[in-house]
């Protein structure tokens, strides 16, 4: 398993909806391991496959010392919301208040194709929503109110990496994809 480069804001893979996983094979298990290793090394609270250049519907999370992953997730959101700080490993060192559902029920599969159900509130709910958004080509800055979004875009333009546009990154070792976290760093 290995730590992989994380794609930054401006990379087109972050805006491309990911494809469903169809093969629950060794390559998928390697992808889950690489996502986990990369997320923990960053460190972040979550990481989605597009963030490492792989266009598949897979993400990992690390919340309250629990590490998990979901393949082909579907989320059901509560009507009750929370407003709180959120960042992204693909938008490093910037945090803005973002509104999310307070509770989430996520269903999908584990890396072996076994059904999986995850229920979360607060930080875990935020992580699941944030990573699932990555699978749809949505970034947390897209969910900010207009004033906060303008501030976020200005802050991105003022970073060294944002002013330069999408950085060059090495290709992902995963061949099964097309072609990416969470609330800043731990």
TrEMBL record:
MF annotations from Gene Ontology: metal ion binding; peptide deformylase activity
Positions of the catalytic residues: 131
Cofactor(s) the protein needs: Fe(2+)
InterPro entries, alphabetized: Peptide_deformylase, Peptide_deformylase_sf
Pfam family, any one: Pep_deformylase
Catalytic activity, as annotated: N-terminal N-formyl-L-methionyl-[peptide] + H2O = N-terminal L-methionyl-[peptide] + formate
Entry keyword Cytoplasm: no
Keywords carried by this UniProt record: Hydrolase, Iron, Metal-binding, Protein biosynthesis
Chain residues that bind Fe cation: 88, 130, 134
CC cofactor note: Binds 1 Fe(2+) ion.
Record keyword Transferase present: no
GO biological process assignments: translation
EC number: 3.5.1.88
SUPFAM superfamilies from the UniProt entry: Peptide deformylase (SSF56420)
Alphabetical list of HAMAP family matching this protein: Pep_deformylase
Similarity field: Belongs to the polypeptide deformylase family.
Function: Removes the formyl group from the N-terminal Met of newly synthesized proteins. Requires at least a dipeptide for an efficient rate of reaction. N-terminal L-methionine is a prerequisite for activity but the enzyme has broad specificity at other positions.
The protein, known as: Peptide deformylase
Lineage start: Bacteria, Bacillati, Actinomycetota, Actinomycetes, Micrococcales
């Amino acid at each position: 398993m290995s730590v992989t480069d994380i794609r930054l804001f401006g990379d087109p893979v972050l805006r491309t909806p990911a494809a469903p996983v169809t093969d629950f094979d060794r390559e998928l298990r390697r992808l889950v391991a690489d996502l986990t290793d990369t997320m923990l090394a960053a460190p972040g609270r979550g990481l989605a496959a597009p963030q490492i250049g792989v266009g598949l519907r897979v993400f990992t999370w690390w919340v309250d010392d629990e590490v998990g992953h979901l393949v082909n997730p579907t989320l059901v959101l509560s009507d009750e919301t929370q407003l709180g700080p959120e960042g992204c490993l693909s938008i490093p060192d910037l945090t803005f208040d973002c509104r999310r559902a307070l509770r989430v029920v996520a269903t999908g599969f584990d890396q072996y194709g076994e059904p999986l159900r995850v229920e979360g509130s607060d930080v875990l709910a935020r992580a699941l929503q944030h990573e699932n958004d990555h699978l749809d080509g949505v970034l947390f800055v897209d969910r900010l109110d207009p004033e906060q979004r303008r501030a976020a875009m200005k802050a991105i333009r003022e970073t060294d990496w944002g002013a330069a546009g999408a950085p060059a990154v090495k290709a992902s070792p995963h061949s099964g994809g097309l072609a990416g976290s969470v609330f800043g760093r731990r």
